[in-house]
Amino acid sequence: MRPMPAGVRSGVRAGLLGLACALGCCGCGIGPGSAPSSVSLLVTRDFGSRRLGSSSAPRVAGQETVMSLLMRNYSVSTRYGGGFVQSIDGLAGGQEAGEPVDWFYYVNGVEASKGAADVKLHAGDHVWWDHHDWSQTEDVPAVVGSFPEPFLNGLEGKRLPVRIECESVSGPACRAVNDRMTALGVPAAIAAPGSPGGTDTLSILVGVWPTVEGYPPARGLAEGPGANGVYARFAAHGHTLTVLDQNGRPVRTLSGTAGLIAATREEEEAPSWIVTGTDRAGMELAARSLDAATLQGHFAVALTPGGAIPLPQVSPGG
Q1: Under 8 Å CB-to-CB from 163, ≥6 apart: which residues?
Q2: Full set of structural domains in the chain with CATH
Q3: Which are the contacts of 250, defined by CB distance < 8 A and separation ≥ 6?
Q4: Of 61, 58, 73, 72, which is closest to residue 30 (Cα–Cα)?
Q5: For residue range 37-78, what is the model confidence (pLDDT) as tens digits?
Q6: Is the pTM of this model over 0.85?
Q7: pLDDT top residue among 48 and 17
Q8: pLDDT band for position 264 (cuts 50, 70, 90)
Q9: Burial of 53 (0-12, 13-18, 19+ CB in 10 A)
Q10: How far apart (Å, rounded) are the C-alpha atoms in residues 8 and 113?
């Protein structure tokens, strides 16, 4: 049996929810608590490249979980005793073009470590289900496509402190990122890369790739998606950025000015975002592109003067 990807493990208690739905109680809330406000729900496929459904005001009733919200708004089938999402509106996991595909979910841009039936929703949560190829990695631990989350509402109902780590704390890229946080009403500390911070602090690493590649959030970006879930790879010298497809194959090499906005996560720590580039102009381009219009619905984004490139760059037919 193939491994069950962490992002779609729905937990054994999801079986109880499935049983309740079978008995006609799927319209009921899961608890006496009030329904979470301002929740949004996005359903896509192929790393966000195709939107299947989206609602800024999905149906809610009482205290919801990720699983109950999905079941309330879509036709869902499960397996493994109800603990695993098999299909949403008929689109199922399994094999496509000889590669494994399944459903994965993210709450405020973070792949949850618990099953969907065990994750309670809080006010402002952005829930995103995506059906994609996991041949290159079973886990993409953090994505940028729920921006302004997790900065605005945090994780598990708790707003987290934000630290912007800049190679030049007075440079235009650092100011652009700080200005974006200020516009969101998110206070942020500014520090040099590598400054001490807690595991519950959201960090944004800002710098030209050769100056930041050695810091923990950026490690692995030279190795491809198997290392941290980012479908792009910097060359050893840092002056080119290679865009990868869903199978990890090089699609395009960006030389000259190019930027990257990506998110990573180590174990259960808060996610770290990376705003970087092949040169200073690329880094500044990435910093100015830290907005919902550029990021929403994408796992990561490469930037060129000609526009944004969603990552991975999905190749037709796999």
Answers
A1: 188, 189, 190, 191, 195, 197, 201, 202, 203, 204
A2: 6-133 (2.170.130.30), 162-311 (3.30.379)
A3: 242, 243, 244
A4: 61
A5: 889 999 999 999 999 999 987 888 878 999 999 999 999 998
A6: yes
A7: 48
A8: very high
A9: middle
A10: 10
